[in-house]
Design brief:
Length: about 280
């Protein structure tokens, strides 16, 4: 797709690009295509993988490594960003990790230190990041902040486990910050994305079944990473300047569906085979 210059003149920070599958990777490419300029950030441990440099080169961006659970590193990041951009117009928070999920601990056996870490990485990090930028008063009026979430915040997806709680907290932080940011003319929204084949996505047990279930009932099918990135471009642009404190579904219609003909047929076939 050709760019339309929707983000020309805008600068920001994009957190969470890990590899080519990452939502943030696609977001970075789409923001660059639309004329936006940014710093990429991820946890220092990711620097070992050496994957981000190619994206940084292609998008003429620099990388600042910072752990989103470390207030000092996040403050330092924004000081550096201020040195290069002065002020910024957008932040993309695309960070998530379920510690118990990763270590195959079921919800009824949560290890609480890991649970705390999950909430810290996946939800509190949004507050920490926004706070560090606001402390330096470096987000311009008209600025836009976007984070990624999932319907597991509202509904129980059995294998999504602690991540449902983390996303519920994340979406609540969006509302709480949104009120305060609004007074400074800054907006913040969460995007509730379809299951997408990324490193974090595959970390959820039963991901393939969740993906296929969503595909079979979503009228438009599952939303892919590129369409997610395009949607986020609109939210970072001035076209959506009056949208804030919203949880916006980007899921091909999944969140409004109950069951579809396709899923009924699939289940009927399975029942016939079983009988
Ligand atoms: N993939 C899906 O199905 C799906 C659906 C809805 C929402 N989301 C959300 O989208 C966001 C991005 O995930 P993704 O699917 O692109 O997977 P991903 O694994 O590519 O991205 C997750 C990112 O979080 C980063 N991260 C983890 N701990 C960190 C820390 N302490 N400090 C800084 N960064 C840290 C990882 O390094 C990684 O880059 C997450 O919030 C995820 O929950 C994903």
């Amino acid at each position: 797709m050709n760019g339309h210059g929707l983000l020309k003149g805008k600068n920001g920070v994009i957190f969470g690009a890990l590899n080519e599958a990452s939502l943030a990777w696609h977001i970075a490419e789409a923001v660059y295509r639309e004329g936006g300029r940014f710093v990429l950030s991820n946890a220092p441990i990711v620097s070992r993988a050496g994957t981000l440099e190619g994206l940084a080169e292609r998008t003429e961006s620099s990388i600042i490594w910072a752990d989103a659970t470390n207030s000092g590193q996040i403050s330092e990041l924004f000081s550096e960003v201020r040195d290069s951009f002065g002020s910024i117009d957008f932040i993309v928070h695309s960070i998530g990790m379920g510690m118990n999920v990763r270590k195959n601990k079921d919800y009824d056996e949560l290890q609480y230190e890991w649970f705390h870490k999950t909430l810290d990485i996946s939800a509190m990090s949004l507050h920490r990041i926004v706070r560090a930028a606001m402390d330096l008063d470096m987000i311009n009026r008209g600025g836009s902040i976007v984070t990624l979430t999932y319907l597991g915040a509202q509904r129980t997806f059995s294998k999504y486990s602690e991540m449902g709680d983390a996303k519920a907290l994340l979406e609540s932080i969006v509302r709480s910050l949104g009120y305060r940011l609004g007074k400074k003319g800054i907006r913040i929204n969460s995007i509730s994305q379809s299951p997408t084949a990324t490193t974090a996505g595959h970390g959820i047990e039963g991901f393939d079944s969740m993906f296929e279930f969503a595909r079979q009932i979503s009228p438009l099918g599952n939303a892919d990473s590129d369409s997610c990135a395009d949607y986020i471009v609109t939210l970072l642009s001035d076209l959506t300047r009056m949208v804030t404190m919203q949880n916006l579904y980007h899921d091909g219609g999944f969140s409004t569906m109950g069951i579809s003909d396709e899923l009924i047929e699939t289940l009927q076939e399975a029942l016939t085979t079983a009988s």
